[in-house]
Write a structure and sequence with these properties.
50% of the residues lie in helices and 13% in strands. The protein is of the alpha+beta class. The protein has a 3-stranded antiparallel β-sheet with strand order 2-1-3. A hairpin with a 6-residue loop joins strand 4 and strand 5. Helix 1 runs antiparallel to helix 2. The chain is rod-shaped. Bound molecules: zinc ion. Zinc ion binds next to loops.
Length: 141
């Protein structure tokens, strides 16, 4: 964003001019001239020689400079606001959704293990279809 850099440079120029005008004792009136990008400030010792008074020209320069800085920084301010908002929304969002998203999808119930019955009396292994233990005759459960 080259225009932003130019804007800041211009703003600093305005600020510097404004400050120097206000702090210059010989600058009792000011002519502001120049072309679009190169602003030239001419100080006059006589209060009536220049187009602007010292206070008007100095304040004008500072106000314009601050305005240009604000303009240059405005997208950054907007971004900062947007980021803060989206961070807030994001954290809220993730705190609400993380219990859901972090859990694995529900697994289908595991298939029942093959039925292995053991005779409660003699501990002989029984086939699933056996109703009575072939060894001791105990009824299977
Ligand atoms: Zn048995």
């Amino acid at each position: 964003m080259i225009w932003r850099i130019l804007l800041v440079i211009g703003a600093l120029t305005f600020l510097a001019n404004g400050c120097s005008i206000l702090s210059d004792e010989d600058c009792n009136s000011v002519d502001i001239g120049g072309q679009r990008r190169a602003i030239s400030v001419t100080c006059h010792r006589s209060p009536n020689a220049g187009e602007f008074s010292q206070g008007t020209a100095g304040t004008l320069g500072i106000v314009i400079g601050l305005g240009m800085i604000t303009l240059a920084a405005w997208p950054l301010i907007q971004n900062a606001r947007y980021n803060r908002q989206s961070n807030y929304v994001g954290s809220t969002y993730s705190s609400y959704t993380s219990p859901r998203t972090e859990q694995p999808p529900p697994n289908p119930p595991p298939p029942p293990p093959p039925k292995t019955n053991v005779c409660s009396s003699c501990e002989r292994r029984l086939e699933g279809h056996e109703k009575f233990c072939g060894h001791c005759g105990t009824k299977t459960t």
